[in-house]
Amino acid sequence: AQTVTQSQPEMSVQEAETVTLSCTYDTSESNYYLFWYKQPPSRQMILVIRQEAYKQQNATENRFSVNFQKAAKSFSLKISDSQLGDTAMYFCAFMNLHSGNTPLVFGKGTRLSVIA
Amino acid sequence: EPEVTQTPSHQVTQMGQEVILRCVPISNHLYFYWYRQILGQKVEFLVSFYNNEISEKSEIFDDQFSVERPDGSNFTLKIRSTKLEDSAMYFCASSEGGPHTQYFGPGTRLTVL
Q: Which of A26, A57, A84, A97 is the most buried (most CB within 10 A)?
């Protein structure tokens, strides 16, 4: 079974600064996707970014980018120019692409606070 | 932009009562999911649904749970006899295909008294 570990329960960053959230995962599969989801106080789950394991290039989405290290099974999220609206829980998630419906496996989350 | 919707946003029920949580997935999506998040804990997979049948379910999804797609738009989760420990946020998600990004609804907060 796959597991996802987020070792930082809480982090804080000053507005306009850069912060990196860590995620590691354990799998014997070679074909999978990785995701970061954001959950603001409203508790809605919002997709931030997706990385396909077969791609060597790190995914980027505006101020959000990832550092995907497949051999190390590491998938960190970098938020540049942090904004107050980035305050949220951030969940790392793994999707195995073996077949059919593929449930997401989530980490426990990192609570990020952006400070003015 | 199309989105997943869920109703109600908050449901309060007495222990032992039946509840039905409703979801309207994105219209061209074919795969549907339910997840649960107990307060302060991580999001856990309950069940996935494709072509009018369950394709995968977790250990949490026991006989008191059922899912249904009663018409062309709704996707429901029924809990037959609620327990205190069923209190959680329940998220519906949908995707175009199995190995595709899942888009989540805003969730239903279920409180069992």
A: A97
| C-beta atoms of A101 and B55 within 8 A | yes
Q: Are A91 and B43 in contact (CB under 8 A)?
A: yes
DSSP state letter for A57 = S
CB B84 within 8 A of CB A18: no
Neighbours of B97 (CB within 10 A): 13
The residues near B40 (Cβ < 8 Å, ≥ 6 apart) are none
Residue B106 to residue A107, Cβ atoms within 8 A: no
Size of interface A-B (CB pairs under 8 A): 66
Rounded CA-CA distance A75/A86 in Å is 19
Chain B partners of A105 at a C-beta cutoff of 8 Å? 45
Mean pLDDT by 10 residues, chain A (116 residues): 92 98 94 94 89 94 97 97 97 84 89 96
Residue A60 sits at the vertex; the CA angle it makes with B2 and B37, to the nearest 5 degrees, is 55
Joined tokens for residue A37? 């989801």
